[in-house]
């Protein structure tokens, strides 16, 4: 925690995450400081306070929500409950899908990319795992095509991670979509949109019978009273935590324009303010080493446990000044190769 | 969280817990306030910082420790990994044992009480679940008899919750006992001895192969960076957190003496500063209602989800002034029946 290398990592300007870095957490932090005595409070058995407030916000019933230890906890819980099933994943995708499916003995079919989501090879598949917008590259499947997919394949259950739904401008899946699609299990999280990954609060939204089953496997009392209070504060002060997606996208557009001006790289399509850049003939891991060692910056590369190719990196747009510095640093490195 | 009834409960002088109420957490709280930014920190995958520091402290190897979401998380994890087995529990015991065993389809044999722990009916039993000192009543099995039990029954695995080991004066089981007993799985927690149940940090200590198996079922990243920092602080400042067991016991002895002077009740044997009191002809739930409504105090009764009889209550000795007030209140209530 306090080792020197960790401290150095913290000081880097970090383009490698998928968190909404601009969240203003000052009032939340003040509130938590006022409530520091909660470290001695016995937790609720199933984070009922969060389920109650959240279900109202996302317009589902309280028994259609299960609070979990981050979206990671949600994914592992579902994979465990469906252990040994035939599952389909579309790569690149959420690394945690693959970890959880492997751990729980799923028979995994992996398809490498997919233009038409409504024509997936679902013969014999029981569960299909998607992340939209996709954590790997920011790609989004359209709401209409996804709803068609769910409707046309009633015998397949779709587990869809929508943790980053607030990151896109387009209309995407909503928690209340479970009402019309009983084969839909949605996974989400407070970590990314509110920049509180340290609180470990995610959730599953699905029909009542599915939630009841998952609850049976969920560890009681695993959300601390402190984390419950943090999320309660976020939920009762929504205006403080609105994510300005358009502003964030404008800064991404500017960053993309600067990067496009550099020879020897290609920007892959994305619906989020983070996106993948492919180097045409060079090693992204080496570029990242240069950025970390010489420029005090960091992007995400394959060695960070992401499904990227060695010549690809993922970058999350920060403020314009940082973005400019990044584009300049990349241009310098590229011109010296 | 903020509903009026919760607020009222908080203001009660609470004799119903099994936490070491006297823990001085002021420096820990200051430290956490200084580190409030950790709410935005990505957690370690398996709380490695805690495993490393803790394993040194308790003199086992790092791969013999698994950090869990409280002792509750540890118990559910073990029950899940051994689902469907033949298990023995000795009642009264940790309620969470029964919840976890029922959830995971164990065939549970329950024996009502046990004078000689070395003569348990273990024929056909695969797992035996114990809590010592016992959370229900503070009873302790002697270290010698337990070690004999483990040795004489090599085909039974013993899961022993020692979360309250620091509460007793007598010698009890130690984490390093796993070295000589490969059929021993110890469960413990920081919540009770350090009064930080809000942090949700417990752990399992067992031989390497058992820990590796449990780790496979454990949710990654489920201990927040904030909780890791709290426990790190506790582990590197042990002197600040020493539990003064003898002092606590003296205050329990005084409380027991005062209660003994009251007609119509019996104090059950206990090795901890909390103990069970049996009312000879009266309802402990009614007594507790009187204490809560008229005296601003609370003891633990059967309706709190504990394995107590309707005429029994559990009381945790607090400071002498509070203890005196409790004894006086009970005497008043008893004399008015």
Q: What's the β-strand tally of chain A?
A: 12
Q: Give the topology string of chain A: H per helix, E per strand.
A: HEHHEHEHEEHEEHEHHHEEHEEH
The helical percent of chain A reads 25-40%
> Largest contact between protein chains?
A-B, 49 and 48 residues
- Reading side by side through the largest sheet of chain A, how are the strands ordered? 2-8-7-6-5-3-4
Low-confidence stretches of chain A: 1-9
CATH topology of the largest domain in chain A, what is it called? Aspartate Aminotransferase, domain 2
**CATH H-level homologous superfamily name of the largest domain in chain A:** Type I PLP-dependent aspartate aminotransferase-like (Major domain)
The protein's oligomeric status is homodimer
How far apart are the termini of chain A? 36 Å
Keywords (chains A, B): Amino-acid biosynthesis, Aminotransferase, Histidine biosynthesis, Pyridoxal phosphate, Transferase
Domain Aminotransferase class I/classII large (chains A, B): 44-330
InterPro entries (chains A, B): Aminotransferase_I/II_large (IPR004839), HistidinolP_aminotransfase (IPR050106), NHTrfase_class1_PyrdxlP-BS (IPR004838), PyrdxlP-dep_Trfase (IPR015424), PyrdxlP-dep_Trfase_major (IPR015421), PyrdxlP-dep_Trfase_small (IPR015422)
Organism (chains A, B): Porphyromonas cangingivalis
